[in-house]
Amino acid sequence: MKSKIYKMIVMAIILSKTSMGDEDFNIKLNETTVTYERYDEITLLDTPKNITIITSEDIIKRGYRNVDEALKMVPGLIYTDGAFSMRGQVPKLADKALVVLLDGVPQNGMDNRAYDLDFIPIEKIERIEVVPAGGAIMYGGNATAGVINIITKKKHEKKYWGNLGLEIGSYDYLKYKFNSGFNITKNLATEINYLTSDKNGYRDGEKKELDYFQGSIVYKLTDGNIAIAYEHNQKKATDRIGGLTKEQYDEDRKENPEKGRIGKDIQDKYTLNFDKTISEELKLFTTLEYKEREYRYNYPQKGKTPAYKKRDKSTDSIYLNTQLKYSYGKKSYVLFGGDYSSADVKENVNSYKNKVYLSSKSKIDFDAFGGYILNTYNYNRFIFTQGVRIEKNTFDETKKVFKSNGQIDLKKSEKTKDSPTNTNYELTGNYLFNDETSFYLGYNRVKRNPSLTEFSSWMTDISPEKEPQTVDTVELGTKTLINNIFLSGAVFYIHGDKEIMYDPKNGAMSGSSFYNLDGKTKRIGIELSSEQYFDKLVLRENFTYMDNEIIDGPYKGNEIPGISSLIYGLGATYEITSEVIFNLDSLYYGKSYAANDFKNETSKSNSHFVTNISLRYNFRNGVSIYGGINNIFNELYCDYVMYDSSKSITKYTAAPERTYYIGGEYKF
Fold first, then answer.
1. Where does 209-265 have alpha helices with state H?
2. What are phi and psi of 377, to 5 degrees?
3. Is the pLDDT of residue 245 over 60?
């Protein structure tokens, strides 16, 4: 079956080569990105990073149904148990080292809830920009590994616009979506979006229910805009999928030892965006977001004692950033920016300890201030960038523990406070060899303090001090267009010191999961990606290889666990006719040691190769129907593999087998 599909692709290449026209393929190099400078757009060629851009057109043609699917084919990204890590960052720390932005606003939760890509409707996306090893000057230490910026659609020329759709699939999957907007006047527009979906998962007791609503108003100023939006998200889903021993996995890979754990996540967000061109040289950008988030978790006891019976957490947070851009020459400018984040987190927990009912309460106040300067200077064909950021974080935690009789145990009340300050640096040079080729060399140093979650769940027995991790990255890369072939590549060296790590087993037992690794790390890698454009066919390839090693300390000479050294992807989009589009994506993950196996005691998990296909038919009246098969060859693999060193047991979390879906939508 695999060979037949690839033979079809080869035949499509041959047929398409014979019908290549005089297309202008420079459109790829002229794609613009806003992530590197937060708001203003610059071309891909001028950017000194190995950026990947996925446009709304790419999303439709490739049949991506959510943000997760759209990101899996990006070089350097690794998808593990529902989250992404970049360039060898340890799994389960994705939300700590990789910033996810929605129109420039970080989506990483300030509490212990990670970013949630389910709350971003794929239909609203204009493009996705992925920037490895970039963004720490503007977005702080959480961008140690890079940035994923999701930009939504804002400009509509029609008086009225919108779409509605229905999608069904395997495991009782059902999704409804609706979007509508109109231009009230020449300067005033409004829009609403609604989405709901239900799905039973692959594993026993797995489920997910989503509800999303957003309303926005945009007012166009003279040389600027004001936008106000309200968003409500609600997700009810399985809180955790328990890992299986090898014997359990071989007997029934769908088994879930912890089924019954249900979490409910509710968010309300209020956002204000303002941009204004003050003069030809001066521009101002400001974003303000206020968010209320509640997390409710229940775990009915069924034959064994859970870590928690009930857990309620509420977070009120504010995010503000302002940037001033002053242009002093052609492609020469300086950015002055500042941001402020604040969170008030309250948590009530009902838990069991030795089968004795206990209650606890905690309150954490978190504040972060950041200021930066980023200067870009153009000289002939050289573009030089220098940046520095200073940020200060303040943690203030109070814990109250209650006895089983409900009285406060004053001896166990704790109050902890910390106020670390870090400085980040960046220096890059980009040379435009011609209008179709550029080379760049960059260096950045990023310091990251423990996040709010890490701070409150620190393993003091392993790391008595909560120290910041330091990561230095050197990168050399190029982008070029040769006839109808786009090429992009980079080689990089990443040096880490006192990296903050996660121990999943200890967290489940004691509630303390994070610590500084005793030792330095290195990651040496290469990323390559290419697209070939023919008349009706686009081929895509990406390749990532990394040598990940702990270079001193008790684990000296061992591989960093949980990370595949080799990843590559193959893709093809073929427009059979002007109405019919076929897409294929294949992704290979190499072997890796189980997460937390720093001693490299276990055998590596198996590699896997997953192929997805989709077909779309666009009628001429705005109606489209589509369908697809994910994991068409029914590859059996695991989302996550964890090693429990205390019991010398490896735990496996099974990934879904072959799934199907079909849907339709109407655009007006």
1. 246-251
2. -125, 130
3. yes
Residue count (the chain): 668
Measure the CA angle with vertex 45, ends 40 and 46; round to 5°: 50
Are 25 and 534 a contacting pair, CB within 8 Å? no
CA distances in angstroms from 39 to 156, 269, 335, listed in the order given: 19, 21, 11
Question: What SS3 string covers 371-423?
Answer: EEEEEEEEECCEEEEEEEEEEEEEEEEEEEEECCCCCECHHHCEEEEECCEEE
- Which one, of 45, 167, 39, 59, lies nearest residue 661 by Cα? 167
Angle in degrees, CA 336, 337, 343, rounded to 5: 170
Distance separating alpha carbons of residues 64 and 162, to the nearest angstrom: 19
- Contact 617/623 with Cβ under 8 angstroms? no
102 membership: H or E segment, kind and range: strand 98-102
**Separation between Cα atoms, residue 276 and residue 42, nearest integer Å:** 18
Cα Rg of the chain (Å, integer): 25
Tokens of 413: 């009340």
Q: If pLDDT is split at 50, 70 and 90, which confidence band does 240 have?
A: low
What pTM was computed for the model?
A: 0.87
Strand partners, 230: 215, 270
Among the ranges given (304-308, 364-368, 475-479), the one the predictor scored with the smallest mean pLDDT: 304-308
User: pLDDT value at position 394?
Assistant: 87
Listed in sequence order, the DSSP H helices in 39-189 are 56-62, 67-71, 94-97, 136-139
Q: Please check whether residue 412 is in contact with residue 398, taking contact to mean a CB–CB distance below 8 angstroms.
A: no
Place of tokens 């294929």: 584
Q: Count of alpha carbons within 13 Å of 519, Cβ hemisphere only?
A: 17
Which pLDDT score is estimated for 34? Answer: 60
In whole angstroms, give the CA distance from residue 160 to residue 183.
7
Greatest alpha-carbon pair distance for the chain in Å reads: 81
Element containing residue 209 per DSSP (H, E): strand 207-221
For the record, the structure tokens of 101 come out as 């932005």
